[in-house]
Automatic annotation (TrEMBL):
GO biological process: DNA-templated transcription
PROSITE patterns: HTH_LYSR (PS50931)
GO molecular function terms attached to this record: DNA-binding transcription factor activity; sequence-specific DNA binding
Ranges of residues in domain HTH lysR-type: 8-65
Protein name in UniProt: Transcriptional regulator
InterPro entries tied to this protein: LysR-type_TF_proteobact-type (IPR058163), LysR_HTH_N (IPR000847), LysR_subst-bd (IPR005119), WH-like_DNA-bd_sf (IPR036388), WH_DNA-bd_sf (IPR036390)
DNA-binding found in the keyword field: yes
Record family assignment: Belongs to the LysR transcriptional regulatory family.
Keywords of the record: DNA-binding, Transcription, Transcription regulation
Length: 333
């Protein structure tokens, strides 16, 4: 059967499924605002096209034939698919609403995303957010996640995304610590300092730096290691030593003068660096709730980075790169 013939018979298939559901030509006609004879002709037309009897008619009831049972199962699937399509299209035509499930690394979620959620909830009162802070790999389909925020060079195969900002690390200490122990002028000076580091792998205690054509690698040591940036931040603020921190973690303490950047003329090379992306399954049409969340977060972070750059005169400024504005898939009207 050709595609055109199938399309021409879709109405008859729907009517046939309704007849089976109601068990009556007359009841189907009543519900569809038609005549029983018109309903009977539609079923007869489908039977003729398929070359098989679908219904066994008696004076009291209708009974599905063996072939009719199989055809009815497929017609029922067709109707359910049509209902699902209508439900999806409704999502695009309505205002943003529903729940958004967002997976994000713990530190990024706490310091980058979470501070903006309250304003988002106020602006979009019909949208709820389920923020899942987890450093493990999350599969959007298997884990039932709408959006994933990850540090990556580009969206992995099978996903689309939008760049949010660059993640970079720096060394920080309190003015009190530096006043007591001195301020390093070269990476090798760190050998005499207490350093607070990640501590997950042996390489975490080998800090790497670059300055133009110069490179330096230093085996640091310290009495405290922690694999959470919030904990390392607190340890640095308690004057335990010089710590490696993502800028987004140390930002407010730097702005308040509670922390000072150490070795600002050197670039600190850490594994936990790169571009922060918000990822989603490939689609031509994003649901409104996802579209507004992505746009909202991207714009808030853009303004935040612009403000930070204006205040960062005493910090290395080559890391304050704003991603270019990227167009999201259009929402179907």
């Amino acid at each position: 059967m050709s595609t055109n013939s199938t399309i021409n018979l879709m109405r008859e298939m729907a009517i046939f499924a309704k007849v089976v559901e109601t068990g009556s030509f007359s009841e189907t006609a009543r519900q569809l605002a038609a005549t029983p004879s018109a309903i009977s002709r539609s079923v007869a037309k489908l039977e003729k096209a398929l070359g098989t009897r679908l219904l066994q008619r008696t004076t009291r009831k209708l009974r599905l034939s063996e072939s009719g049972q199989e055809v009815y199962a497929h017609c029922l699937n067709m109707m359910e698919a049509a209902q699902e399509i209508m439900a999806v299209s409704g999502n695009f035509s309505r205002e943003p609403q529903g729940i958004i499930r967002v997976s994000v690394p713990k530190a990024v979620g706490r310091f980058v995303v979470h501070p903006h959620i309250a304003a988002f909830l106020v602006q979009y009162p019909k949208v709820d957010v389920n923020l899942r802070l987890d450093d493990r790999y999350v599969d959007l389909i298997d884990d039932q996640v709408d959006l994933a925020i990850r540090i990556t060079d580009q969206p992995p195969p099978g996903l689309m995304g939008r760049r949010l900002l660059n993640i970079w690390h720096m060394l920080c200490a309190t003015p009190e610590y530096l006043a007591e122990h001195g301020t390093p002028q070269h990476p090798h000076d760190l050998k005499t300092h207490s350093c607070i580091y990640l501590g997950e792998e042996p390489g975490d205690s080998r800090w790497k730096f670059s300055q133009g054509n110069k490179v330096a690698t230093v085996n640091i040591h310290g009495r405290y290691a922690a694999n959470h940036t919030g904990v390392r931040l607190d340890a640095v603020l308690q004057h335990i030593g010089i710590g490696s921190l993502p800028y987004f973690t140390a930002k407010h303490a730097l702005q308040q003068g509670r922390l000072v950047q150490v070795l600002p003329d050197w670039s600190f090379k850490a594994n936990y660096t790169g571009e922060l992306w918000i990822l989603y399954p490939p689609t031509r049409h994003l649901p409104p709730k996802l579209r507004v969340f992505i746009e909202f977060l991207a714009e808030r972070l853009r303004k935040e980075i612009t403000s930070d750059k204006m205040e960062a005169k005493n910090l290395t400024t080559n890391h304050y790169e704003l991603p270019e504005a990227e167009k999201l898939p259009e929402t179907e009207k």
